[in-house]
Design brief:
- With 314 residues, the protein is of the alpha/beta class.
- The protein has two domains: 129 residues, ornithine cyclodeaminase, domain 1, CATH 3.30.1780; 162 residues, Rossmann fold.
- Helices cover 32% and strands 26% of the residues.
- It has ten helices and 15 strands.
- The strands form two sheets. It has an eight-stranded parallel β-sheet.
- A hairpin with a 7-residue loop joins strand 4 and strand 5.
- It starts with a strand and ends with a strand.
- The model has no long low-confidence stretch (mean pLDDT 94).
Length: 314
């Protein structure tokens, strides 16, 4: 008989040390770019009101895990959805189940981490103003992560609902709320974190040399065609452009393969990333199971070290 460690959502969030998470996610992105990750295509069962998806992966040095997550629309809140589920961690040597973690916490924070890594790799060296577009769970996770690793850059949160934008801005010291257009104009870095079904920003709003990170838009395009077509688009995996939605990105369908660059290749030094100061850089995230493995490894290591969670005999 063996034990499985079970962590609540609050325990999972508390175990996601930001710098350890950024390091682990970077390792996973590099492994994806080197074709070292084993991750089959996503599968999903469709219910009348949503889907239940399954995302397993093995990442050398990080481990073996599978995320089972439901995505359902929030009643009465157009464009918003819930992401609830679990991440199961297994021993990659003998297959024993080791832990069950909260998937919503892992998904939000690992997504914020990959967006932050895109900023570090592709934006100018000293961004003076950051815009966060969105007011939901992912936007708050992005603001909170930025606050823990810096907290000194000016941040403006743009949203359709001023009250919710102000609530999101409260996650970052000194951040302010404004309209989406006002937030984006003049920003050096723009994080798009919405449930959009159509573009939420326009190319003409973006400053020369801006970096755009888009992690939302699973139900439709979050970025306009002019922004996507301005230069190379950086992604976690080639399927972001090659696969049909929802596995691939709506914005990247039909994009020439030579316009798509793996972010891991930039982190690994095999691609230069930004070519000149005035260039617009775009990162489009669709998520990848390897990133869940990365985050789960950080949580599991923390929990074992600090005695977090409850052990269930199986």
């Amino acid at each position: 008989m063996s034990g499985v460690l079970v962590l609540s959502s609050s325990q999972t969030r508390a175990a996601l040390d930001p710098e350890r998470l950024l390091t682990a996610v970077s390792t996973a992105l590099v492994a994806i770019s080197r074709d070292e990750v084993s991750a089959p295509p996503r599968i999903a069962a469709r219910a009348p009101a949503g889907v239940l998806g399954m995302m397993p992966a093995y990442v050398p040095g990080l481990g073996l895990a599978a995320k089972v997550i439901s995505v359902f629309a929030e009643p009465g809140l157009e464009g918003r959805s819930t992401h609830r589920g679990i991440v199961a961690v297994f021993d990659d040597q003998d297959g024993r189940p080791l832990a069950v973690l909260d998937a919503q916490s892992i998904t939000a924070v690992r997504t914020a981490a990959v967006a932050t890594l895109s900023m570090r790799a592709l934006a100018g060296p000293h961004p003076e103003r950051i815009a966060i577009v969105g007011t939901g769970v992912q936007a708050r996770a992005q603001a909170a992560l930025l606050a823990t690793i810096d907290g000194t850059t000016a941040v403006v949160v743009g949203g359709r609902d001023r009250g919710r934008a102000e609530e999101t801005a409260a996650c970052y010291p000194g951040a302010v709320a404004d309209t989406i257009e006002a937030a984006v104009k003049g920003a050096d870095v723009v994080f798009c974190c919405t449930g959009a079904r159509q573009p939420v920003i326009q190319r003409e709003w973006l400053a020369a040399g801006a970096h755009v990170s888009s992690v939302g838009g699973s139900a439709g395009p979050e970025l306009d065609a002019a922004t996507v077509g301005a230069g190379p688009v950086f992604v976690e995996w080639a399927g972001a452009a090659a696969a049909e939605p929802p596995a691939g990105a709506h914005e990247l369908q039909g994009l020439p393969p030579d316009q798509v660059v793996l972010l891991g290749a930039v982190l690994d030094g095999r691609h230069p990333g930004r070519r000149e100061r005035s260039e617009l850089t775009v990162f489009k995230s669709t998520g990848h199971a390897a990133l869940d493995v990365a985050a789960a490894s950080v949580v599991y290591d923390f929990a074992r070290k600090h005695g977090t969670g409850s052990t269930v005999c199986v």
